[in-house]
Each structure stands twice: as structure tokens, then as C-alpha cells.
């Protein structure tokens, strides 16, 4: 019995050409059946409002609590944690586009090298240099040991001129240097899926994730005990099904989800 | 039966105040007994000639083949490897002070992003930025996969203004990003000890390492099957002996080595 659904965004609900056919009616039908859903995406370059605007264009009403990215997840995590431990001031190593999402929190001064209760590492891109990596290390190695959050574990991305490192390698460097393991908020991290489940308010055995990425969406969610649907859109490749474990269901696209849910019930 | 000896340099043979008392006569006595010895040090900021000059000041005759650092080890490793596989051109990410040691080899142009058969990562310090890390990643992810050498695994060092990352974290970032595990040449890497044994020409069970660092010198060498002597000079602390495994012998200083060797024979 599926009581809540997590959707990947890119390649599942939307791609470079616009919405995936049937995506809007799928979301609308879930809402009309009072089945809660969330969008769970690894993007840190777009604020949640960007996805809300796209949904609005599709005729889907949603609010910011329905979008879970490493950035929104980190804010949810900080609120949870703040009930037990101080989390501020926060040292932010993120791109300017992500910085505004944290403006309600008490942030450490941009060049400060001490006093952080939380260190958040994102994709600083050109901003990463020897001085900034050292600053993150110095903040992490002070007492009391601050919380250490990595906004994802992505290894690199393909720019026009070649590969560029993403947040994962910098988090790996700082983990190696400091000896402190980061809490990774981004698929396929268990901490990220756990936050999505907490936001959904449904226990894991009743939650389905719908994704196009066999590793990050499907295998990652299986590790956390979720049910899984792989769609044949986006980055799906036939070879994705060649090695176990298989998803619970493979759908041609998100358009087939409602029928499958009805049949499964 | 000890047939060859490896010495750590700093804190064992020499410290900030000059030579450790008895160090010169210890080395001279080994030479007179035809027991080969090598100095095995993790420094990459000083060329081997620096240590040779210091030894000369101490009245000890030595040549460059007796100094094994990550830099000299990488050159020995490259010569070994070149018999089977092309190793040039080499992409060097090292400080200027180390660059001259590689001048006999065919080096990739400083900004080139393809064509390396070997990528060598050292302590580039201020030279590390987003562009240089991306360049290393791009070189590592081309076909054929280049050799990947890290000149040590040190996490950081203490500068006047705080901690600064060393080669280890950058190597960890590039390993995470590329999926390629580097060959680490520096204590306590097994590949580094293996090169030291090959240079010494003595089988491991007959080799003694003399060091002041319980982790890097003693435990690292034990993993490789060497005999081990911990000296109570340099960075030695009484707490070093609180957890196993213990070294084969603990000496007040290198000055006691000859007597111990004579007694052991």
C-alpha cells in the first residue's frame, strides 16, 4: 500500500524540452487522492522557487515544503538539530545562488576562521582555493567540533570545456584532512532519504520513489527500505536493468504511475 | 640478523638544534661494517641535496641514492615502471622547490589538460585552486588511464596562522572525483617502504627502521614486515607505547643503536 510518493525532478517530471507528458496529471491525481508527495532533487544551483514556478506553469499547485533539495534539507536538518544543540553561527561555503536561501540564519562572517557551530560545504566552484579549503579545515578542527554538512556527494559535472569538480571531492578532502565524516544531504545519502521520509510523514514501507537514475534514486532508496519505480525517461538506459537489485516496477514514464498505483491497490 | 637500516631524518638523526648526539658515529659505524643504510623521509620541501649537505657537515659521506623521499621515490618508481609502460609526459603538481628534481623527465606543459601518462600530485600549496584541481581531474580521466602518484599522504601542517592542507586531502579529492586510487609514496605507504627495501637490496626480515613517529615510522613499517626501533628523541611521547603493537626495541636515541645491534648479533 503506497501512502506517499517521492519524485525525482530532472528526467522524471521535467526535462530540457519541458514537462514530461502526463507529469502534471499524475501529481494532480495524487493530490486529489490525498496521497502526499515531495520532489527530491540534488540540484543546488536552482532555488526551490524555480521548481515551484515550473510546477505552476504545468498547472500544479505546490508549496515550498514539497521541494526537497540539499539546501532545503540542510535547513530542515538544522531546525531539527537546533532543538538539541546550538547550530549557529553557520559557516557557508556555497555559491551565491544558494546563499540567499540561508539568510534567515545566523551566518559566520565570510572570512572568519573560528567560531562556527556548523560548517556547510556546497559547490563553491571558482570560489574554491587554497585559502578557502584551509579556512574550512580550521573551522572544522576547533572545539567544540562543529556539525559538518555536505550538500550532496556529486563527483563532477561536464562543463563546456571539460570536467569540473562538484561538492563531493571537496567534502572528501576535508573529511580526510579533519577526520570528521560529513552528514551528506543529497541522493543517495541515507540521511537525505530519512529527511524526505520525515517531511512526508509516512513510514518507509509505504513510500514509493520514482526516478530515472538507477544508482542515486533506485539503489539508494532501496538501501533505505523504500519501494522504487524506475521510469524509462531521462537518463534511463536499458543496461540499468542488467545488474541487481531490480526496482519494484519499471514504467515507461511517470504518466503510467496512477494506473499502476490503482492496480496495486 | 640486521643487514640493512632505514633511518627517519627529523627527530632521529637531526633536529632544529642540529645533529642528534651520536648520529654521525652511528652512520659511520654501519658503513664501516658494510651494513647498508638509507634515510627515508617524507619531506618534499627540501631537495635530497639539502640532506646530503647536512650529512657532510656532520662528517658523514653519503650520496644521493641514500636519500629516499617521496620525490626520489617517485623517480625510482618511474624508472622501474618505464621498463613496462610509458610514463611520460608527466603532469607535475608540485611546489617550485620540488620541480627541479624532475627536470630530466619529459614534462607536460604547465597548463595542458590532456596527454599525461603520469599525474604526480604534491604539495602545491597556494597553487591549488579550482582550475588546477579540475586540470588534474581532466588529466586523470582520459584514456589510457595515466599513472597517479601522490607524494605522501600528510593531512595538514601547522603554519603560523593556522592549519594548512598538505598533499593528502588533495589526493583524496582527486581519488573521489576520478575513482582512481593513487600510488602513495611517503611513509606509511607500503609502496614507499617497498621501494626503500628495493633500494636497500636487503629482504624485509633483515631490515630495521629507526624512527621517532610511532604511527608513520613504526606501525607503518611493521605492516610491511620490517623490524622496528623507536627512539625517545624528536616527537616521541611516553603515550606512544600505550597501545600495541610495540616496536621491537625502544632506544634512548640513535646513539644507542650500534650497541644494541652488536648485542643482538
Overview of the structural elements:
By secondary structure, chain A is of the alpha/beta class. Chain A is built from nine helices and 14 strands. In chain A, strand 4 (about 35-40), helix 2 and strand 5 (about 65-70) form a beta-alpha-beta unit. The model of chain A has no long low-confidence stretch (mean pLDDT about 95). In chain A, strands 5-4-1-12-13-14 form a six-stranded parallel sheet, sandwiched between helices. Chain A has a four-stranded parallel sheet with strand order 6-7-8-11. In chain A, helix 5 crosses helix 6 (about 165-180). The first copy, chain A, has helices spanning about 25-30, 50-55, 70-80, 95-100, 130-140, 165-180, 190-200, 215-225, 255-265, and strands at about 5, 15, 20, 35-40, 65-70, 90-95, 120, 145-150, 155-160, 160-165, 185, 205-210, 225-230, 250. In chain A, about 35% of the residues lie in helices and about 20% in strands. Chain A has two domains: about 5-70 and about 185-265, HAD superfamily/HAD-like (Rossmann fold, 3-Layer(aba) Sandwich); about 85-185, HAD superfamily/HAD-like (Rossmann fold, 3-Layer(aba) Sandwich). The interface of A and B includes residues 162 and 175 of A. Chains A, B: It comes from Permianibacter aggregans. Chains A, B: Belongs to the HAD-like hydrolase superfamily. Chains A, B: This is Haloacid dehalogenase-like hydrolase domain-containing protein 2.
Amino acid at each position: 500500500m503506497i501512502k506517499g510518493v517521492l519524485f525525482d525532478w530532472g528526467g522524471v517530471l521535467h526535462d530540457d524540452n519541458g514537462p514530461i507528458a502526463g507529469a502534471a496529471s499524475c501529481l494532480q491525481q495524487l493530490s486529489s487522492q490525498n496521497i502526499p508527495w515531495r520532489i527530491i532533487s540534488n540540484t543546488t544551483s536552482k532555488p526551490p522557487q524555480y521548481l515551484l514556478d515550473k510546477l505552476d506553469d504545468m498547472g500544479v499547485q505546490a508549496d515550498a515544503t514539497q521541494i526537497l533539495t540539499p539546501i532545503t534539507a540542510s535547513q530542515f536538518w538544522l531546525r531539527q538539530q537546533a532543538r538539541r544543540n546550538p547550530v549557529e553561527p553557520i559557516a557557508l561555503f556555497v555559491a551565491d545562488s544558494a546563499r540567499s536561501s540561508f539568510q534567515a540564519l545566523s551566518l559566520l562572517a565570510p572570512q572568519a576562521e573560528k567560531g562556527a557551530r556548523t560548517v556547510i560545504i556546497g559547490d563553491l566552484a571558482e570560489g574554491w582555493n587554497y585559502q578557502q579549503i584551509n579556512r574550512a579545515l580550521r573551522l572544522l578542527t576547533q572545539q567544540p567540533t562543529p556539525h559538518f554538512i555536505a550538500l550532496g556527494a556529486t563527483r563532477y559535472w561536464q562543463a563546456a570545456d571539460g570536467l569540473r569538480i562538484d561538492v563531493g571531492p571537496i567534502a572528501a578532502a576535508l573529511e580526510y584532512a579533519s577526520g570528521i565524516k560529513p552528514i551528506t544531504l543529497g541522493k543517495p545519502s541515507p540521511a537525505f532519504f530519512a529527511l524526505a521520509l520525515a517531511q512526508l510523514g509516512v513510514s518507509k514501507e509505504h513510500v514509493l520513489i520514482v526516478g530515472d537514475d538507477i544508482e542515486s534514486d533506485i539503489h539508494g532508496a532501496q538501501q533505505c527500505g523504500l519501494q522504487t519505480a524506475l521510469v524509462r525517461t531521462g537518463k534511463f538506459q536499458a543496461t540499468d536493468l542488467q545488474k541487481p537489485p531490480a526496482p519494484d516496477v519499471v514504467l515507461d514514464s511517470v504518466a503510467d504511475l496512477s494506473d499502476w498505483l490503482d492496480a496495486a491497490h
